[in-house]
Q: What sequence folds into this?
């Protein structure tokens, strides 16, 4: 039986970069728990409930087996959440070199906190190498074209946030 992985993040909102990582992750893991950080201190554009709905709709849109992807939220330490869900793997996507230092730091901190949980990285699809939730929000806010960068169910909800 293959492992359960937790795929954590802010997902504010989920992008096509995220869904590409999810699709690749399903090759390696039997089940992936997409775990939305419920830290409102980050002043997210979408509430946790909205972000979870958008992830669920995007999973349906990508045609993935919904039995293999669960959407949840967490607060507190990620390794504690992973343990509470019997997951031994944290899944993260890696884009450019800029991601590397932050991800290395987090992976090693998480290993220090719980050596039984491994962080596994999947390289971002080159089509979405430049796609990040923050950039997508900025471009949408300024009236730029973000279709193709976010899953279809996200687009109207993102544009509505900026009265576009
Ligand atoms: O998509 P993001 O915002 O880069 O995701 C960051 C996330 C949610 C993975 C990270 O902030 C996190 O794990 N937060 C939980 C708190 C925690 O466990 N911190 C210690 C590990 S560095």
A:
């Amino acid at each position: 039986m293959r492992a359960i992985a937790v795929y954590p993040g802010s997902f504010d909102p989920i992008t096509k970069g995220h869904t590409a990582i999810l699709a690749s992750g399903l090759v390696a893991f039997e089940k992936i728990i997409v775990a939305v950080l419920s830290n409102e201190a980050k002043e997210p554009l979408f509430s946790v409930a909205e972000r979870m709905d958008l992830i669920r709709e995007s999973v349906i849109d990508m045609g993935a087996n919904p039995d293999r992807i669960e959407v949840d939220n967490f607060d507190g330490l990620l390794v504690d959440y992973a343990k509470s869900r019997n997951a031994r793997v944290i899944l993260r996507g890696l884009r450019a070199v800029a991601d590397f230092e932050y991800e290395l730091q987090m992976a090693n901190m998480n290993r220090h906190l719980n050596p039984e949980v491994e962080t596994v990285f999947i390289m971002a699809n080159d089509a979405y190498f430049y796609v990040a939730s923050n950039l997508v929000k900025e471009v949408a806010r300024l009236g730029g074209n973000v279709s193709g960068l976010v899953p279809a169910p996200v687009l109207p909800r993102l544009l509505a946030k900026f009265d576009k």
